[in-house]
């Protein structure tokens, strides 16, 4: 695991060093393609390393269906841990990610994210407008965690969903594909102590849900509630990696 973290630190700094001059040199569209290509392949190498070292057993095969997805789409996973985006982007070469502003300022991750045209989670109105324009103009795959943050430690299935996903879907008119992430560990979830070592190998399942569209006359609040019910219904069903209850002390 230490080798994996070292890889990510070195690769992240190298990508930032390459990205900063490319932001100045390349046209915007070309810069986005180069940035997304670099991050996709960097994440793929990291995932291959985790598998080769028998640290993670990850089933990502359901995401292959997105290669056949016509037109733009919003990919909306539950957010179990810090590295959810790593596994998803390793399978999605053209993804546009919405991320925290602080990550864009991070010297390890920020340069590549800026080059790739990733979107900071700023004001609601600005976020919805920027994300909708990116979907319509670039016909991309927008990666958005509708919980807004990692699932909290004592929550049974997911945090209450934010309304941004519904607002973007309504404005852009594109489908939402929920993604259900399960794991046998709470490693790097919200509240996991950084010093605490998990039991290896970590087992991870990522399952793609059916497309969802806002219905005619349906409010953003109602669509968000319907999406939340889909997550709760799927994540609560019998599964070998179903989330285990953690009792508050």
- Structural domains: how many: 1
Task: Give the fraction of residues assigned to helices.
Answer: 40-55%
Distance between the termini: 29 Å
Class from secondary-structure proportions: alpha/beta
Largest sheet: 7 strands, mixed
- Strand arrangement within the widest β-sheet reads 1-7-6-2-5-3-4
**Low-confidence segments, ≥5 residues, pLDDT <50?**
none
Strand tally: 7
| Cα-based radius of gyration, to the nearest Å | 18 Å
Residue-averaged pLDDT: 91
CATH structural architecture:
3-Layer(aba) Sandwich
Question: Per DSSP, what share of the residues sits in E-state strands of 2 or more residues?
Answer: 5-15%
- Number of distinct helices: 8
Q: What is the name of the CATH topology? A: Glycerol-3-phosphate (1)-acyltransferase
Order of helices and strands: HHEEHEHHEHEHEEH
What spatial form do the alpha-carbon principal axes imply? globular
**Which CATH class applies here?**
Alpha Beta
Detailed description of the structure:
With 249 residues, this protein is an alpha/beta fold. The protein has a single domain (2-235), classed as Glycerol-3-phosphate (1)-acyltransferase, CATH 3.40.1130. The chain has 8 helices and 7 strands. Helix 1 (2-25) runs antiparallel to helix 2 (28-52), helix 6 crosses helix 7 and helix 7 (164-172) packs across helix 8 (220-235).
């Amino acid at each position: 695991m230490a080798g994996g973290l070292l890889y990510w630190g070195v690769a992240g700094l190298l990508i930032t060093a390459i990205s900063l001059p490319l932001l100045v040199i390349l046209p915007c569209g070309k810069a986005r393609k180069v940035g997304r290509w670099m991050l996709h392949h960097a994440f793929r190498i990291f995932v291959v390393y985790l598998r080769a070292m028998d640290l993670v057993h990850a089933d990502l095969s359901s995401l292959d269906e997105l290669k056949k997805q016509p037109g733009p789409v919003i990919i909306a996973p539950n957010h179990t841990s810090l590295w959810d985006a790593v596994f998803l982007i390793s399978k999605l070469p053209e993804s546009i990610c919405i991320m925290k502003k602080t990550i864009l300022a991070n010297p390890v991750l920020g340069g590549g994210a800026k080059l790739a045209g990733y979107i900071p989670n700023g004001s609601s109105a600005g976020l919805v407008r920027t994300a909708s324009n990116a979907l319509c103009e670039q016909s991309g795959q927008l990666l958005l965690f509708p919980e807004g943050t990692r699932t909290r430690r004592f929550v049974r299935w997911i945090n209450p969903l934010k309304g941004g996903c519904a607002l973007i879907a309504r404005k852009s008119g594109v489908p939402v594909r929920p993604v259900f992430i399960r794991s046998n560990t709470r490693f790097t979830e919200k509240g996991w102590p950084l010093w605490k070592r998990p039991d290896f190998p970590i087992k991870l399942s990522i399952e793609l849900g059916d497309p969802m569209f806002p219905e005619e006359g349906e409010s953003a609040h109602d669509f968000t509630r319907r999406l939340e019910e889909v997550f709760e219904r799927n994540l609560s069903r019998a599964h070998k990696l179903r989330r285990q209850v953690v009792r508050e002390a």
